[in-house]
Specification:
Blueprint lengths: L14 H11 L6 H12 L3 H9 L6 H11 L5 H46 L5 H50 L10 H11 L3 H4 L2 E8 L2 H8 L1 H16 L7 E4 L4 E7 L3 H17 L3 E2 L4 E2 L5 E7 L6 H17 L5 E3 L19
Parallel strand pairs: 6-7
Antiparallel strand pairs: 1-3, 1-6, 2-3, 4-5
Helix pairs in contact: 1-2, 2-3, 2-4, 5-6, 9-10
Length: 358
Amino acid sequence: MLQTSSASNDRSGDIATTIADCMKRMGVVGLPRNYEIFYEVYAGSNRDLARDFAALEGRLTQDALDKLAMKHFAQSNRDSIVESAQNQIAIRAEEILSLLGRERSSLEKFGVILDQTSNGLGSNADLSRDILCKIVGIMAAATETTIQQGRQISQAMAEKSEELEKMRSQLEQYKRLADTDPLTKVWNRRAFDKRMARIYDDPRSIMYHALILIDIDGFKSFNDQFGHPIGDRVLQIVARLLKVQGNADSFLARTGGEEFALIVYGLSEDATMTLAETARATVEQAEFVLGPSGRNYGPIRISLGVCMASEANDADDLYTKADQALYGSKLDGRNRATLYSRNPKGSFAKNWLIYRKD
């Protein structure tokens, strides 16, 4: 079985060769998606994946590996998952349309029988008892058949509608997974881009929004010193601390390695700055007790840049100005929150929309 306990400390070996040899020994086809699973297990950064991998107890069929990838790498499988769910919805919709067509055809046939019977009754002044009995029998049979078909179609439509709702719910779940950062479980950069664009869709909403950019101070050095597994746990704790700071309308996303963004709604400039300062103090005062040794890796400190949406012309401008404020916090010694100034220090700027489609 693939070893994970000392993987993060084994810097001398060739990781790619080690993983490839292990896959070969275990009879696993060298597909990129299989390599991704083995790499994550080897690195030891995804505990849930490592646990599920170990539970297979060597029974590494391609189907089992694909299920692991589907469960743990929703982002990398986002397009195929969503496409599959959409196809299932389309199939269920076609089936419902087919049932509606059958219902319409049944009713049309019943209408023809009614018309013919009505015409027959109207054109015959002298109708014998036998003829009337036959007409009544035909009408009763046609009515019963139509009712039975209606019941069957109604039941089938209810079942298809239930399946359609399940597919719709599954699609929404997959879409949410595709917009969620797998490590911290907050929104990811893709979701952030979409939410930023929505701020300026309605001029009235601009007055009620603000952007807070957050960066963990010295995180690269921290990772180099303590390793990525500890760094990942720090990111998870920071994300959890930041998430509880905003109100119900706040939107927290991880936008980069150690970078977060908080879009707030319904707060004044003073209230937004108070929120930023509270978030900074909360992270600084938190304990980061990690690992079996129970070591406290704190204090962890963050720098923040704040800009009100009304100070910017569009989402691109809002991100740039909040980033300038964040840069000001860094220049002033870090571990502080800075409000955007019309005369910011330096000229540091990045484009907010990583996933722009030209």
